[in-house]
Design brief:
extended, alpha+beta, 4-stranded antiparallel sheet
């Protein structure tokens, strides 16, 4: 009673310690580079009730552990994972770094160096890379400013920002837009002074200015004409500056700021239906064409300025909004830095490649569809040129499906060999059904092949018992080959209760090297002999194992099933024969990538089946004593055969104009839905219609070949040594 209480208390106390460790790990889940801990339990042993036993070399049975009663459990150790690598995650900070392996960052507080795996960094005011948590400088090898080579000597503070790229000279305003609403009912517009609009701009030294423009309605009868006039320019202190001699306007550089620009509103009208301002003026002509040319496998996309440049600009702007949070700019909150500042620091094209990646898939797919080619591999893309002014020119080289030819595919000869179902095959299946439904019962008399025996044994070599050579109440089926050759044969002929010796010799290639090739004597005691009792093959048996009332009905069902299976096998053999004849006539160069792609698909399928069994592919390859290259090589022959068959059948379908109809597709969708017990609409939304129709067309091509073939049917008896399984 007290012992069990002590064990329970020890377990609760130790469990509390483990929960503290787990709780600490959870509390620090967001702590950068936190070293997680784990607890190891340790048993409190007090009494052994049964000793351990080793593996039994004779029977192949493993050893058993000792039976021990203790006083519970204690905390054996608390381990800290100092170098264990955690999962990678994106922080949005380009200066955050994750270190891999058993490595550490070197940081310094100015007087001494420390080691850490905390890679949360920022750039301090001096341009040095520093730890976010402590401010310690990150140390590393410096760069020789003369040669540009890394100096692998002593570590120094890593300065990644210099005075040149930490500050920016002011830039003068080069372009600005003036906007305003012209409303004939606006009193400011119709007044003598007009409507004032302010425009802010900067000079090359960074000083700000405010330009005051005025919209005025022209006098006289021309109420639909307005003028834009610059009244004054104020400096940053509000003082008016002299504007004489200052010019503006890209079209007429001699037009002074005090000049007037006329706007004719007859070119515009308000549409009440769409609530939009529409122009009646003839817009300038623009050319909006996209050249998509495939030549020698090369795809060239040339974007037109009028249309595509704007698309590029929009894509760059979108990329900036999405990616801006990755860049830290001193003086700006994360993700709030202006685009031009980021481009200034990291390059003017920093967002261009993201934009191109966004635009390319659509452009590529459109070009492929327009060209009518069928790529069989991913494209190799080169950027010929890219700019916001001239657009993007891309060159993509793709491998396309070859045009294959086949020889004669009509009137092919084949023999359909259908195996007849003999009475012996039916009786063999009945016997297997009896075996599956047999009872194991104890019997008297001498043991013989097929019997299950219950024995004790102990083995000796040169009169000395060897490890693993002893067992009690071991279940041995005579004739099964479970143990050393010759052992089972010497057990046969003995009855329950007998004690006798068995003399055998271990094989030369035995797993236990110390016993290999040696003679051994086993002392054996036979406790029990059991045998299988098969049910009688009668009508009652048929009722018990099937839906039929009589044995004859059961046999007839078995025969029918075998005949149907033999018919299917014969049909498949004919198909294979006809297809192989066509493949033999296949002409054309098949790109090697098609074979490699098919191997990839077969490997992925094999890996999926392994995963269903709880096994990883890399572990399987290791267990088989091979490597990845040899493993893939095993699929090569079958992959090449399947690719050639597919190309040959597609060539036949193309030659005969064979295609899948919408009805064919709908029937296939319904078949898949029934097979996987899914809704038809869900299946229709999942399966790729184009690919399914290609597969259906190939199946139709097979049917066409069979229908136009000269097939001879031959009933053949199974071979004498053939056994039904």
């Amino acid at each position: 009673m007290m012992r069990s209480l002590y064990s329970g208390v020890a377990g609760l106390k130790t469990h509390q310690t483990r929960m503290d460790v787990i709780g600490n790990n959870i509390a620090n889940v967001n702590t950068t580079a936190y070293k997680s801990s784990s607890m190891t339990f340790s048993e409190l042993m007090s009494q052994t009730t049964q000793k351990a036993s080793g593996a039994n070399a004779t029977t192949g049975v493993g050893g058993t552990n000792a039976k021990q009663i203790g006083l519970g459990v204690k905390a054996g150790a608390i381990n800290t994972a100092i170098t264990t690598q955690g999962s990678a995650q994106s922080t949005g900070n380009p200066f955050d770094i994750m270190i891999t392996g058993d490595n550490f960052f070197v940081v310094s507080n100015g007087s001494e160096n420390f080691f850490t795996r905390d890679g949360s960094f920022y750039v301090d005011g001096a341009g040095n890379l520093a730890m976010t948590s402590t401010g310690y400088n990150v140390m590393g090898w410096g760069v020789d400013e003369t040669t540009g080579n890394i100096k692998q000597d002593t570590v120094t503070a890593l300065r990644i920002m210099s005075a040149a790229n930490m500050t920016y000279p002011p830039e003068a305003t080069t372009q600005a837009n003036i906007s305003g609403i012209l409303d004939e009912n606006d009193k400011d517009v119709t007044s003598a002074n007009g409507k004032t609009v302010n425009l802010n701009f900067f000079d090359a030294r960074g000083y700000s200015y405010t330009a005051k423009f005025t919209f005025k309605q022209s006098g006289g009868d021309k109420t639909n004409e307005y003028s834009l006039e610059l009244n004054k320019i104020l400096d940053s202190t509000g003082k008016e500056i002299d504007i004489s001699g200052i010019t503006f306007g890209e079209q007429n550089l001699e037009q002074t700021l005090s000049s007037k620009l006329s706007l004719n509103t007859d070119s515009y009208k308000w549409d009440d239906a769409t609530k939009t301002l529409q122009t009646t003026a003839t817009p300038p002509e623009t050319v909006a064409e996209l050249d998509k040319i495939f030549k020698n496998g090369a795809l060239i996309t040339d974007k037109d300025k009028a249309e595509e440049v704007q698309k590029n600009l929009d894509a760059i702007a979108k990329a900036y909004k999405r990616e801006a949070g990755k860049y830290n700019i001193p003086g700006f909150r994360k993700g709030k830095a202006p685009r031009h500042m980021i481009e200034k620091m990291f390059g003017a094209d920093v967002f261009h490649y993201d934009a191109i990646n966004d635009l390319f898939p659509e452009a590529y797919e459109a070009a492929v569809a327009e060209s009518g080619i069928e790529p069989v591999d991913r494209p190799e893309v080169d950027i010929v040129s890219a700019s916001t002014e001239d657009g993007v020119v891309l060159k993509a080289v793709v491998t396309v499906k070859p045009e294959m030819k086949v020889g004669e595919y009509k009137g092919l000869k084949a023999t359909k060999k259908v195996n007849t179902v003999e009475d012996a095959a039916v009786e063999a299946e009945i016997e297997r059904m009896r075996e599956r439904n047999a009872r194991i019962i104890t019997r008297e008399g001498k043991a013989q092949d097929g019997d299950v025996t219950d024995i004790d044994f102990e083995g000796f070599v040169d009169g000395v018992a060897f490890e693993g050579g002893k067992g009690e109440h071991f279940s041995l089926t005579l004739g099964s080959g479970q143990v050393i050759p010759g052992f089972e044969e010497q057990v046969a002929g003995h009855e329950a209760g007998e004690e006798f010796e068995v003399n055998v010799t271990f094989p030369e290639q035995y797993q236990a090297e110390e016993l290999a090739g040696k003679a051994a004597t086993f002392k054996v005691k036979l406790h029990e002999v059991k045998t299988k009792e098969l049910p009688a093959a009668d009508d009652e048996f048929a009722k018990d194992v099937s839906e039929y009332d009589t044995l004859d009905e059961l046999k007839a069902s078995i025969r029918k099933g075998m005949e149907e299976q033999n018919e299917k096998n014969a049909e498949l053999e004919v198909e294979n024969d006809l297809v192989e004849q066509i493949v033999a006539t296949l002409e054309g160069d098949i790109p090697p990538v098609m074979f490699e792609t098919r191997i990839d698909e077969m490997v992925r399928d094999f890996e999926y089946r392994l995963q269903q069994q709880g096994l990883r592919l890399e572990d399987y390859i290791k267990y088989m004593g091979g490597d990845t290259a040899k493993f893939r090589e095993g699929f090569k022959e079958q992959a090449e055969k399947q690719v050639k068959i597919r190309l040959a059948l597609e060539a036949v379908a193309a030659a005969e104009g064979i295609a899948a109809s919408e009805e064919d597709f709908e029937n296939e969708v319904k078949r898949i839905a029934d097979a996987y017990k899914m809704e038809v609409e869900k299946v229709r939304g999942i399966v790729p219609e184009a690919e399914v129709k290609k597969d259906l067309a190939v199946n139709k091509a097979i049917d066409f070949i069979k229908q136009n073939a000269d097939v001879t049917v031959e009933n053949v008896a199974p071979q004498k040594d053939e056994k039904a399984e």
